[in-house]
Write a structure and sequence with these properties.
About 40% of the residues are buried. By secondary structure, this protein is of the alpha/beta class. The protein is about 35% helix and about 15% strand. The strands form 4 sheets. A 7-stranded mixed beta sheet has the order 4-12-11-10-7-5-6, sandwiched between helices. Strands 1-2-3-15 form a 4-stranded mixed beta sheet. The protein contains 13 helices and 16 strands. The chain is globular, with a radius of gyration of 22 Å. It starts with a helix and ends with a helix. The longest helix has 21 residues. Helix 3 runs antiparallel to helix 10 and helix 7 runs parallel beside helix 8. The protein binds pyridoxal-5'-phosphate (PLP). This is Adenosylmethionine-8-amino-7-oxononanoate aminotransferase.
């Protein structure tokens, strides 16, 4: 029996309506930018398996570093012990993170990085004897699937059923270049009517919303208001971190730096799960006290797993190389060229790009979870390219190591499929 058939007996997949979508493709191998299924078909991984494997799948440099680490120290509790991979990763991260960041806290996935960031912000004020209860977030943000992360995410199929159990959130629109004053007014009103803890945001590019891009200067206007009113700012860079936007972090481009930053996905280059919540020394200092209860009692068993830390260290080493930086630039300029061509297509309503991310909105009224999206996904797969449209938005987020030919294949496949619509 095939993997696809055996899968159906006991497995329950995420983000799936099994009644209408019973099949999951069996993948047996991944190397570089190529995925191989159980029938031997190959696909270019044009979205880096959810923005993770930016240095290609099974990267020899990273896997050899991880293998070395596996033979030395596999797992150790991080509440009472420390180890070289975690210490070194903190040193390397502080070198590349925005200058105001000084403390590294470990978690195990993007949602828990956000969860820890939310709890840090809440307890920061709790420890100072202030009762603050409300978070501000963008209308269509996505921050993960645990309760805190779900609360600050925009309402959708993800968090709809749990609406009655979510935290107190006030939502503001995303800047579009024309609504800065409206947002500022709304922000001031929210701040005056609520005890606001913090503002959480995906800087510059909102991933799950459909790779929506906003301007650094507009975001900065919001952050400056937050700073002025003593509201903590939490940048969710789970998707944007580690080179995606052209800089190490999206926040590099924004003048006002966040108090807290959440990182995951490309952090470990797609090898193993891990995440980090970093913060300023000022936030950390609010947890120092002779009273044990003022410490941060948040822990995940696998926090700072040495193997995951070694994957992160190897990937940061690669990210800093001239070769990878050049590739990022190459992908970015290729996207620019392709955008010019594809934006004139009759099936396209708008195109945007930033760093290695390119998004194409289709000229259609089809719903986000409609059949067009499924049809597109299947057509791309039939052509040997793995692209996973977000509703009616087709986007590319290729590994930094993608070859010229492979990138060209992705572009021509998109054009071909659009022509066939
Ligand atoms: C993917 C994502 C998350 C959630 O991360 P998980 O590892 O899937 O829990 C949070 N925020 C953003 C911006 C993401 O893209």
């Amino acid at each position: 029996m095939s993997l696809q058939e055996r899968d159906k007996k006991h497995l329950w997949h995420p983000l799936k309506q099994h009644q209408t979508h019973p099949d999951s493709l069996g993948i047996v191998k991944a190397k570089g930018c190529i995925l191989t299924d159980e029938d031997g078909n190959e696909y270019i991984d044009a979205i880096s398996s959810w923005y993770t494997c930016m240095f290609g799948h099974c990267n020899d440099f990273i896997t050899s570093r991880v293998y070395q680490q596996m033979q030395t120290l596999d797992q150790i509790m991080f509440s009472d012990f420390t180890h070289e991979p975690a210490v070194r990763l903190s040193e390397e991260l502080i070198k590349i993170l925005p200058k105001n960041q000084n403390r590294i806290f470990f978690n195990d996935n993007g949602s828990t990085a956000v969860e820890a960031g939310i709890k840090m912000a809440l307890q920061y004020y709790f420890n100072k004897g202030e009762k603050r209860t409300t978070f501000i977030a963008f209308e269509n943000g996505f921050h993960g699937d645990t309760f805190g992360a779900m609360s600050v995410s925009g309402l959708s199929v993800y968090n709809g059923p749990f609406e009655d159990f979510l935290m107190d959130i006030q939502r503001i629109p995303v800047p579009n270049g024309e609504n800065n004053e409206i947002i500022a007014e709304q922000l001031h009103q929210i701040i005056s009517e609520n005890n606001v803890v913090g503002f959480i945001y995906e800087p510059l590019i909102q991933g799950a919303a459909g790779m929506k891009i906003h301007k650094a200067a507009d975001l900065n206007t919001i952050l400056a208001i937050c700073k002025k009113n003593n509201i903590l700012t939490i940048a969710d860079e789970v998707m944007t971190g580690f080179g995606k936007t052209g800089n190490y972090f999206a926040s590099d481009e924004v003048a006002t730096k966040p108090d807290i930053i959440c990182l995951s996905k490309a952090l470990t280059a797609g090898l193993v799960p891990m995440s980090i919540t970093s913060c300023t020394e000022e936030i950390y200092a609010a947890f120092l006290d002779n009273d044990i209860a003022k410490g941060f009692f948040h822990c995940h068993t696998y926090a700072a797993n040495p193997i995951a830390c070694s994957a992160a260290l190897a990937s940061i080493e690669l990210l800093k190389t001239q070769e990878i930086q050049d590739n990022i630039e190459y992908i970015s300029s290729s996207h620019k060229e392709f955008s010019k061509k594809i934006e004139k297509h009759s099936k396209v309503s708008s195109v945007r790009y930033k760093g290695v991310i390119l998004a194409i909105d289709l000229n259609t009224n089809a719903g986000r979870y409609g059949t067009l999206r499924d049809q597109l996904l299947q057509s791309f797969m039939n052509e040997g390219v793995f692209l996973r449209p977000l509703g009616n938005t087709i986007y590319i987020q290729p590994p930094y190591v993608i070859t010229e030919d492979q990138l060209e294949r992705i572009y021509t496949t998109i054009t071909k499929i659009l022509n066939s619509l």
